[in-house]
Amino acid sequence: MWTVMDSPIGELRIIEREGSVSQIEFTPFRQPSDGRPMGERRDDAPVLVETVRQLSAYFDKQLTEFDLPLAPAGTEFQQRVWKELLEIPHGQTASYGEIAHRLGHTNNASRAVGLANGRNPIPIVIPCHRVIGANGTLTGYAGGIERKQTLLDLEQDALF
To answer: CA 68, CA 85: separation in Å to the nearest integer?
Structure first.
């Protein structure tokens, strides 16, 4: 099942599988990368309704932590990276190297962390936008650098 919501960074398509959020996609929407069908649009499905509610509250600067059932599909390493992303507090950032170190690796794993970060199927909720380059610069983002900057600005504004 899936639904679409408006947001300050464009329409978002939210996909639920078996009672958990499995993907959030930026426009332009594509076919699911895992080849499984999305099912029908169901704007009234409870998990989708709650996800839209929480994302709306996030964009309205009323929510800093999501509480949703998540089921991102990925490799064991990707899962470890995504779990670590959930530990980056709202309004803060971490570098690819810092994430690699938190996972018990050296800076040499920064590139692998970046690749896993880029494959995050549930952006915003799993906050891959909070990962930046070692020198503090914004680096690639699946939704585009402008969206990444908007999300980081939104979180900074919400803190003050």
So the answer is: 15
Asked, for residue 53, whether it belongs to a domain, the answer is yes
CB atoms inside a 10 Å sphere around CB 96: 23
User: Whats the size of the chain, residue-wise?
Assistant: 160
d(CA 75, CA 143): 21
Pairwise CA distance, residues 134 & 85, whole Å? 16
Q: Is 58 exposed, middle or buried (0-12, 13-18, 19+ CB in 10 A)?
A: buried
Domains contained in the chain, number: 2
Q: What residue numbers bound the domain in which 100 lies?
A: 76-159
**Residue 41, SS3?**
strand
Inter-residue contact 114 to 101 (CB < 8 Å): no
Instruction: Give me the catalytic one of 128, 151, 152, 154.
Output: 128
Single residue among 34, 59, 84 that ends a domain in this structure: 59
128 lies in some domain: yes
Regarding whether 102 and 52 lie in a shared domain, the answer is: no
pLDDT tens per residue, range 87-132? 999 999 999 999 999 999 987 888 899 999 999 999 999 999 999 8
Residue 11's beta-bridge partner residues? none
Does 128 qualify as catalytic in the annotation?
yes
